[in-house]
Automatic annotation (TrEMBL):
Ranges for domain tRNA synthetases class I (E and Q) anti-codon binding: 455-527
Alphabetized CDD domains for the sequence: GlnRS_core
Protein name, entry field: Glutamine--tRNA ligase
Reactions accelerated catalytically: tRNA(Gln) + L-glutamine + ATP = L-glutaminyl-tRNA(Gln) + AMP + diphosphate
Record-listed L-glutamine binding positions: D67, Y212
Major location (coarse): cytoplasm
Keywords: Aminoacyl-tRNA synthetase, ATP-binding, Cytoplasm, Ligase, Nucleotide-binding, Protein biosynthesis
Keyword Ligase among record annotations: yes
EC id: 6.1.1.18
Every Glutamyl/glutaminyl-tRNA synthetase class Ib catalytic domain range: 28-337
Entry-linked Gene3D superfamilies: Glutamyl-trna Synthetase, Domain 2, Glutamyl-tRNA Synthetase, Domain 3, HUPs, Ribosomal Protein L25, Chain P
Domain Glutamyl/glutaminyl-tRNA synthetase class Ib anti-codon binding span(s) in chain numbering: 340-438
Motif ('HIGH' region): 34-44
Organism of this sequence: Photobacterium jeanii
Length: 553
C-alpha cells in the first residue's frame, strides 16, 4: 500500500538522535520482549513497529526476546504464534531468538551476588503477611523479621530453595532496598520464588524462577540493549531496573523509556481477558476475526501494511489515549481501495429471470476501475441472475437508483434490464423478478437517449458459486469494555452474522487472506480456516464506508 514515506518522529527517536550525536552510543539496539502467555494483539504491533522500526531506520538491531519466567502461564504454542506474527508484520529479529530462560544460570549467579553483598535475603513471611508488611501509598512498610539474616544463612536457604527442598510459598528471595520508599516496587521486591513447574524451554531443571523486574533489566544488559522501550505502567519500575543493574557486576547500562500503550475503543487488549474469551468459547479462538489479535486481524483480511500504517498514524507519545476503531479501519480501507481487485458477490440473493435473453454469454470486465494494470477477467452472463434483495422495489421515488418494477437499471459490466413483473410466495415475499434486457446496451447507453442512472451488481445464477459470508460488527457494545465490572456482559451478541449467497465463478480459487472488493458490499477475503473451493466462506474485512461515525451520532 502507499505507506506514508516520511520517517516518523517521536520523543524516543529524538532521544536516540541525541545519544548518537553525543557519542553516548554509536549504534542502537532495541528488543521486543513478549511474554509467551497469549497471542499478540494490535497493541503489541505498536511496540513491534516502534522497536523493529527504530532498528531498521537506524541500521541497528532489534532482538525478539521471550520473557519467559512464568512457566505455568506460558506455552510453546504462543512462542510459535508470536514468531509468526512478528514475521508477518514484516520484521526480522537480529540473530537468534532470545529467551530470558537462557539466562537462568546467570540470573541465579547475580542473585547470589546480591546476597553476598547483603542486598538480598530469604524471607519466610506468607504472601498475606508480606502484603500487610508492605504498607500503603501513604504508610511506610515494616521490616520482615527475616530481613537481617546473615549472608551465610541466606546463601544456604537460597540453595535449599534451588534444590527443591522448600515448598512453594514458604520462602522467597527479596531484594533489600527500602521499606519506606514512596515507590512501592522498591519496598524489598521479591526477586525469586519457588515454583514446581515444568518450563517450556528448560523443562524441570529449575524449581525457582526469577521475577520480571529482576529478569528484564539483566536480560537487556546481557544482550547489550541500548534503549529498553516499554509502556508507561513500568515507569516506577524503572527505579528497580536501575537499582538491580547498579548493584550487580555487569558492564552494560541500558536505559528504560516509557511510552503510552495503545487502547482501542470497543475492544479489550489485556491478554488475560482475551484468554478468557477464548477459554470460555465466547469467540472461536485467538484468531477469531473479531479479536484484536494480529492473527484475528490477518484472518479478517487486514494486511500487514495497513497495520504498520496504523501504528505510524497513531504515533508514539507519553499521553494516555484511546483510539477510535475507525482509524484502524480507514487504514485498511485506504490500502484495499487501491490494491484489492473488484469482484461481484450477492449476499442476500433474489432471482432475476431475463426472459428475452438466450444463451450464456461471456463478458469481460476490469479488475479495478482505476488501475488497468490489474487486468480483466471474464464473467458469465446468463438468463437467470441473482441480485441483492434490497436492490429491488415494487415502487420507489426518484432517489432510489436501483431496480424498480416497470423501470430500468444497469447490471454492472453487462446490460440494461427492465423489471416487467414479479412472482411472490404465499407469505407475500418476492421470489422472482421477470425482466427483459436491451441487447444494444453492452458497454453503451441506450440508443434512443433513455437515461439509466442506476447500476447494481449481480451474479449468474447458473454459473455463480454458493458462498457463506461472515459479517462482523464490534465485539463489545461499550467503548471501554475493560472498565466494566464484568466485561463479558458487554459482549455484542450481534458481532457476527452469517448470510448465504453467491459469488462469481472466478472466486473458486480465492486464496485465503487475499482481499477483494465485492462491488458495493465491502472488502472481503476467503477465510483461512473454513473456506474451500467446494464450500466458499468469506470474511468481511470492512465495509466500503465508515459506518461507525454514523453509529456514534
Ligand atoms: P498484558 O498486560 O495484556 O499481559 P503485557 O504488556 O504484559 O500485556 P507482554 O507480552 O509483556 O504483554 O508485552 C510485550 C511488549 O508489548 C511489552 O514491551 C509491552 O509494553 C508491549 N505492549 C503490550 N501491550 C501493549 C499496548 N496495548 N500498546 C503498546 N505496547 C504494548
Ligand atoms: Mg508483561
Amino acid at each position: 500500500m502507499s505507506e506514508s514515506e516520511a520517517r516518523p518522529s517521536n520523543f524516543i527517536r529524538q532521544i536516540i538522535d541525541a545519544d548518537l550525536a553525543s557519542g553516548k552510543h554509536s549504534s542502537v539496539h532495541t528488543r521486543f520482549p513478549p511474554e509467551p502467555n497469549g497471542y499478540l494483539h494490535i497493541g503489541h504491533a505498536k511496540s513491534i513497529c516502534l522497536n523493529f522500526g527504530i532498528a531498521q531506520d537506524y541500521q541497528g538491531q532489534c532482538n525478539l526476546r521471550f520473557d519467559d519466567t512464568n512457566p505455568e502461564k506460558e506455552d510453546i504454542e504462543y512462542v510459535e504464534s508470536i514468531k509468526n506474527d512478528v514475521n508477518w508484520l514484516g520484521f526480522e529479529w537480529s540473530g537468534e531468538i532470545c529467551y530470558s530462560s537462557n539466562y537462568f544460570d546467570k540470573l541465579h549467579g547475580f542473585a547470589v551476588e546480591l546476597i553476598n553483598k547483603g542486598l538480598a535475603y530469604v524471607d519466610e513471611l506468607s504472601p498475606e503477611q508480606m502484603r500487610e508488611y508492605r504498607g500503603t501509598l501513604t504508610e511506610p512498610g515494616k521490616h520482615s523479621p527475616y530481613r537481617d539474616r546473615s549472608v551465610e544463612e541466606n546463601l544456604a536457604l537460597f540453595e535449599q530453595m534451588k534444590n527443591g527442598e522448600i515448598e512453594e510459598g514458604k520462602m522467597c528471595l527479596r531484594a533489600k532496598i527500602d521499606m519506606a520508599s514512596p515507590f512501592m516496587v522498591m519496598r524489598d521486591p521479591v526477586i525469586y520464588r519457588v515454583r514446581f513447574a515444568t518450563h517450556h524451554q528448560t523443562g524441570d531443571k529449575w524449581c525457582i524462577y526469577p521475577m520480571y523486574d529482576f529478569t528484564h533489566c539483566i536480560s537487556d544488559a546481557l544482550e547489550g540493549i541500548t534503549h529498553s522501550i516499554c509502556t508507561l505502567e513500568f515507569q516506577d519500575n524503572r527505579r528497580l531496573y536501575d537499582w538491580v543493574l547498579d548493584n550487580i557486576t555487569i558492564d552494560c547500562q541500558p536505559r528504560q523509556y516509557e511510552f503510552s500503550r495503545l487502547n482501542l475503543e470497543y475492544t479489550v487488549m489485556s491478554k488475560r481477558k482475551l484468554n478468557q474469551l477464548v477459554t470460555e468459547n465466547l469467540v472461536s479462538g485467538w484468531d477469531d476475526p473479531r479479536m484484536p489479535t494480529i492473527s484475528g486481524l490477518r484472518r479478517r483480511g487486514f494486511t500487514s501494511a495497513s497495520i504498520r500504517e496504523f501504528c505510524k498514524r497513531i504515533g508514539v507519545t507519553k499521553q494516555d489515549n484511546t483510539i477510535e476503531m475507525s482509524s484502524l479501519e480507514s487504514c485498511i480501507r485506504d490500502d484495499l481501495n487501491t490494491n484489492a481487485p473488484r469482484a461481484m458477490a450477492v449476499l442476500d440473493p433474489i432471482k432475476v429471470v431475463i426472459e428475452n435473453f438466450g444463451d450464456t454469454e461471456t463478458l469481460t470486465v476490469a479488475n479495478h476501475p482505476n488501475n488497468p494494470e490489474m487486468g480483466e477477467r471474464q464473467i458469465p452472463f446468463s438468463r437467470e441472475v441473482y441480485i441483492e434483495r434490497e436492490d429491488f422495489r415494487e415502487e420507489a421515488n426518484k432517489k432510489y437508483k436501483r431496480l424498480v418494477l416497470g423501470k430500468e437499471v444497469r447490471l454492472r459490466g453487462a446490460y440494461v434490464i427492465k423489471a416487467e413483473r414479479i412472482e411472490k410466495d404465499a407469505e407475500g415475499n418476492i421470489t422472482t423478478i421477470y425482466c427483459t434486457y436491451d441487447s444494444e446496451t453492452l458497454g453503451k447507453n441506450p440508443a434512443d437517449g433513455r437515461k439509466v442512472k442506476g447500476v447494481i451488481h449481480w451474479v449468474s445464477a447458473e454459473a455463480g458459486l454458493p458462498a457463506e459470508f461472515r459479517l462482523y460488527d464490534r465485539l463489545f457494545t461499550v467503548p471501554n469494555p475493560g472498565a466494566a465490572d464484568d466485561f463479558v456482559s458487554t459482549i455484542n451478541p450481534e458481532s457476527l452474522s452469517v448470510v448465504k449467497g453467491f459469488v462469481e465463478p472466478a472466486l473458486k480459487e480465492a486464496v485465503a487472506e487475499r482481499a477483494f472488493q465485492f462491488e458495493r458490499t465491502g472488502y472481503f477475503c476467503a477465510d483461512s480456516k473454513d473456506s474451500t473451493p467446494e464450500q466458499l466462506v468469506f470474511n468481511r474485512t470492512v465495509g466500503l464506508r465508515d459506518t461507525w461515525a454514523k453509529i456514534a451520532d
